[in-house]
Specification:
There is one protein chain. The chain folds into three domains: 2-91, Double Stranded RNA Binding Domain (2-Layer Sandwich), CATH 3.30.160; 103-193, DNA polymerase, domain 1 (Orthogonal Bundle), CATH 1.10.150.130; 206-322, Alpha-Beta Complex (Topoisomerase I, Chain A, domain 3), CATH 3.90.15. 38% of the residues lie in helices and 14% in strands. It has helices at residues 7-12, 69-84, 103-113, 120-133, 147-159, 164-180, 190-193, 209-220, 236-246, 250-254, 286-290, 311-319, and strands spanning 2-3, 22-27, 30-36, 42-49, 56-63, 206-207, 261-262, 265-268, 279-282, 321-322. The longest helix has 17 residues, at 164-180. The N and C termini lie far apart (75 Å).
Length: 323
């Protein structure tokens, strides 16, 4: 039964205890009360249902001997108000969370704490775009990273001739770092608010039907023989056809090793896939022929020590699509 908790209520509490724990539920505010242990130790508490949860949650506020009734009631009202908004008062921070001093240190901490979930290529990409676009901000205090500074740097990079795609990626990476540390307001959002971002070039280059036919015809020509008479080295047409038939990403194919192929199946390891989960697919029909003769386990299937894929051809693998 609820009652109005006053100084008289506190005076009635038995300091010696009754041998059993009991509760005094208050009405000022509702959800506030006093818990008395079996030995007579009394503590203020709140108990209420947090918005979004089915059951009630209880939290001790402090000892009756160390906290005044008015202080306990004020704290109870604040926490009960949070609960009504869906805030779990059990995990309310007592201290402010750590915020890096400088922009450079914020990036270092972001990549350090996320190193187990980010791919190595992603980490290198963050570091490279920061060094190329924001190297002079490494020692800049976060408080001085203003919207105006962000706007000026965006225009400066654009005037310097860097591509819109690269500039946008650099600011996306920076925005991700600031969001990771809960920096609000995030100054990079000004680019969207002011409609300053330029859209990157849309890839509109597709392999035509004639080009697909030409690739297949060139592939049908006998493989080029090496001086030792072997034909183990795959031609570029094999790479193109493997991409076209599987739909795999560039890194997934070019970094594929023979150890990943066994019993007629290709296993793409989690360090290569975008979702970090291994993927297994059967090598049947033409796919089995395209990978060529088996090499050493550590050798790459389409790129090895003797022959490296032409850089321009490798780039085309990611920019060309089948129409």
């Amino acid at each position: 039964m609820q009652e109005r908790i006053t100084q008289r209520t506190l005076a009635r509490l038995d300091p010696e205890g009754t041998g059993k724990r009991y509760f005094v539920y208050g009405s000022n505010p509702v959800g506030f009360g006093i818990e008395v242990s079996a030995k007579g130790k009394a503590s203020y508490f709140i108990e209420t249902r947090i918005k979004g949860r089915r059951s009630a949650t209880r939290k001790k506020l402090g000892s009756v001997d160390l906290m005044s009734l008015s202080e306990a009631q004020a704290l109870a009202k604040a926490l009960l108000g949070d609960a009504a908004k869906g805030v779990d008062f059990r995990y309310a921070p007592n201290d402010k969370e750590f915020i890096p001093d400088t922009v450079g240190y914020a990036l270092e901490q972001h990549l350090k704490e996320k190193r187990h979930s980010l791919r190595e290529n992603t980490i290198r990409d963050y570091q490279k775009t920061f060094n190329n676009c924001f190297s002079d901000w490494r020692t800049l205090p976060l408080q001085q990273l203003t919207k105006q500074r962000v706007k000026d740097r965006y225009l400066e990079l654009r005037d310097a001739g860097k591509s819109s795609d690269y500039i946008n990626k650099a600011f996306r990476n920076l925005s991700s770092t600031l969001s990771y540390h809960d920096i609000e307001p995030n100054p990079t959002r000004v680019l969207k608010q002011k409609d300053l971002r330029e859209a990157g070039k849309v890839r509109d280059r597709f392999l035509s039907q004639d080009e697909v036919v030409e690739i297949m015809q060139r592939h049908s020509i006998s493989s080029r023989h090496l001086p030792d008479g072997s034909t183990r080295v795959p031609k570029i047409t094999r790479v193109f056809l493997f991409f076209m038939l599987t739909g795999l990403r560039k890194e997934e194919v070019l970094r594929m090793r023979w150890i990943n192929i066994s019993d007629g199946y290709l296993t793409i390891t989690g360090d290569l896939t975008k979702n970090k989960k291994p993927h297994k697919m059967p090598l049947v029909g033409s796919l089995k022929t395209l990978v060529g003769e088996r090499g050493a386990d550590d050798d790459r299937v389409f790129v090895n020590g003797r022959v490296k894929l032409d850089q321009r051809a490798a780039q085309n693998v990611t920019t060309l699509k089948v129409a």
